[in-house]
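TL;DR need structure tokens for one chain.
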Amino acid sequence: MNNAAPLSTLDRFVSSFFNTEVAARYLEPMLDGMLLTVGLGLCVIATGLVMGLMLAVVRIQHVKLVNVFIVAFADIFRALPPLVVIILLFFAFPYIELSMSAFTATWLALSLVLSAFTEEIFWAGMLAIPKGQWEAARSTGLGRWATLVHVILPQAVRMTVPPLTNRTIAITKGTALGSVVALHEVLNVSSAASSEAGNATPLVMGALAYLILFIPFVVLGRWVETRFTWKR
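>> reply
TL;DR here they are.
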């Protein structure tokens, strides 16, 4: 005869969502997932920002045919959900002999989406600089490229920090979408662990991992916005 007292509602809640034994069992794979998520996020940020800036710089040269392609690229990848892009790269590209790993597909998809938004943000920032700035710089003897690099871009970048920071954070959190193609990032690891253990504790660990990873990024973004916001 079992004389054990039934668990209270609070005990069942703690056992289901904050089980220390389950947490200890899956701590190592969760840490590995966090490291992968950090690496992927940094790659996406670096690639997306650089690509977006390069596209905006090319677009400001006003080469009509080139600009058509840049605008089409930006519009398409801003309209497509990142998940769709990941699935297309991972599952469709092998049919044209362009297979790629889950990491590569996720990195490339998120980088393309981020670069599309980044290009539009940098482009808007450069257009916001008064035309007189170009003319004044050229009158001092600076060439077009020197004017762009030394006069226009520093002002444009400063103006675009707030929207750029917000968009970067939003896209980077999309690393969780890599779970769809079996990328072993935090969400995938926590979901698999939760199913294996029959317990929700790994999912709570995954949520905490995202808070640990992204709260400092959000705080840094807020500081950068405050520090570099354009003051008229």
